[in-house]
Amino acid sequence: MVEVTLWGSLGAAAGGQSKLDIEAKDIRELFRKLSEQYPAFEPLIDRGIAVAIDGTIYRDTWSKELPPGAEIFLLPRLAGG
Amino acid sequence: MNFDPRYSGRSFSSVGTRPIRPDGVDKVTGRARYGADFNMAGQLVGRILRSPHAHAVIRKIDTSKAEKLAGVKAVITAKDLPDLTDGDAAMYDILDNSMARTKALYDGHAVAAVAAIDARTARQALKLIEVDYEVLPHVTDVDEAMKHHAPLINDAIFTEGLEEKPVKPSNVTKRTQYGHGDVHQGFAQADFVVERSFKTEQTHQGYIEPHACVASVNPDGTAELWVCTQGHFVYRQHCAQLLGMEASKLRVTSSEIGGGFGGKTHVWAEPVALALSRKAGRPVKLVMTRDEVFRASGPTSATSIDVKIGAKKDGTITAAEATLRYSCGPYAGMWAEIGAMTAFACYKLENVKTVGYEVLVNRPKTAAYRAPSAPMAAFAVESAVDELAKEIGMDPVDFRIKNAAQEGTRASYGPVYGPIGIGPTLEAVKNHPHMKAPLGLNQGRGMACGFWFNFGGQTCTDLNIGMDGSVSLAVGTVDVGGSRASLSLVAAEELGIDYSHVKAIVADTSSLGYNDMTDGSRGTFSSSMATISAARNAIKVLRERAAQMWDIPVDDVAWEKGHAVAKGEKHGNLGKLSLKEIAASSGKTGGPIAGHSELVADGAGVSFATHICDIEVDPETGSTRVLRYTVVQDAGKAVHPTYVEGQYQGGAAQGIGWALNEEYIYGKDGRLQNPGFLDYRIPVCSDLPMIDTQILEIPNPNHPYGVRGVGETSIVPPLAAIANAVSNAVGVRMTHIPMSPPRILAALEAEREG
Prior knowledge:
heterodimer, A: 81 residues, alpha+beta, Ubiquitin-like (UB roll), 5-stranded mixed β-sheet, 5 strands, globular, B: 754 residues, 7-stranded mixed β-sheet, 6-stranded mixed β-sheet, 24% strand
């Protein structure tokens, strides 16, 4: 079980919740369970969500493991110039 | 991916040196081929008809007269670019922006296009296209667009991010909120509070080379696109989807690029060129005029920002709050959200809250511009920080040092920071001679900090070793700031050979696996990671070949300084084999030697900078002159320090233009009044001082050499640093960018009148 903080506009996709407890071992499973539990996440995941694990931001590595006790933030996938 | 991207301290031979840029001679002699320098046999000239109205329903387009004109080979409208986006709202917006479908949404919106045998015929044809418009009320100002009575730009937009779903559509596409703690409680603890409102006007990236492409669709359904872009793989994906093609059938080659700064991360006219070629059955060359570049290729947002910051007498910030409104053009964006994330990222805050509003206006679709959204947020926040320091009676640098974020600080946008450089840049500024230099009459000094995230992303690289021992490095990240030289240095470093033996090229989309856009300061960060990985794979092969040549186990072969070395006493008489010697025998030991790498370069290190600016203001005319400018920024590791310094100087130069001169000016008719470099004036050499730089190197733990992106952060602090300098020079807080002479005079007059 990991605690996930939803940041910015992402909380709205989970009915206004800012934190969720989810049983997931990696980013792939986290996204899958988010989509199952909160369908509003599916288009957001398709559009791109970044995952910060203990401060390091991952944009595409779905195989990245979520260590127990890690601090996990979901962030919008940003644009650069 | 069998590759460890973690930083390991090491000394470098090539990395950190300053060899001559490999593309320099071609660029100064005119041999380098930019977007408009490519031609194909039988090519036609493409031209686009653009709306003269800021907001209008397109009732009917009659192209019959244009089609009958001799020399015209194709005329297209939105009907020739049917909606194949399958409900993908973001792609639909790109499609609609490429060619208006039902409404023209800004002055300059494309409504039709022609391909003809020459430019004259194409221009004539445009004049023969008859468009029946129903002109609608328009709105171009970000604050006006948020008002209830404002003309509605898209009646399908209902604001996202509100607690209750709105029942009426509006021009606000999304509300976002960031922060932590309790700002009300924080402000209650404050001894001093500063609250200010700020505005910034819309600016363009101002790249010298306009958008240009040559599109050729073949009868068998395959196609080629030669184009000036920051990301040819992304252009391939977008164009293929919009035209209903398989991506693999579209080969995209990136030209040299005469500046991008984010403006060439979006497709603009390229889908139109492909549609014209498809209809005409011939190649089509389409080059935007400067007028078109300004009117119809994404400038950055105009903004309206409120900031409130409170602090104790000892200088500790107790709370910080900002409301940020960013214009998006007529399509949804995430510009205010980025502003909300970056606004207070430099500081250690217990109580912080930012709210962003994305606002539609009848202006061109907003695009990224170098650390998009961050400069405006930094302008507002750093201006308020300066004012607060003054109220408390603290030196502005000391005040920032006291409140600077550090490793372990929770960023205002959420995660906790790893090792970061904001504190060191501030200490460097505090000790810099620039801060101690005397100032004269009507002169002021300002400083400010800035932050940018930096990204990594999907990256693919091929490293091929020729039989002569030379190395060809094929990368998929477009070189917008010297990355070919930097990546050659990295390959040379890892292989242990001389830089002159490495040649880096940007491969086309058919020659290499997918690469993300060169944006987010990711080019050198991500491709150097992939280059190190590819080189290590090649070294593995080189060791295997050397083992064959010596007839010893590969585990007994090490790689040192460009040579295979036999390990252990029993191989003591074998000497060394150079890369060149191994390559020369490759035909006998298994064929060509290469290293390949594909990876996702995650873990880009965030970046911070602090700038100092001295400025002189003429109180009679309001004109300004930048006297001295210093950039201090963390690079993680400067692979090619001269390029890093160039990035720092370029960001500062663009920021100077943004702060003092540049602005989109719209008339009451909603039309852009200054779509050219005469009336939209970017700085030229005579406007700029020598820009001093200081590179700090706080290694990024997620890159083998410690590299961070450097391309964007340097444009974040200038607006605020210059505003602080001007405010100190004239004794009036400047709250509106650009600080053009009329605006400075108006501020002085308002101050005199109380």
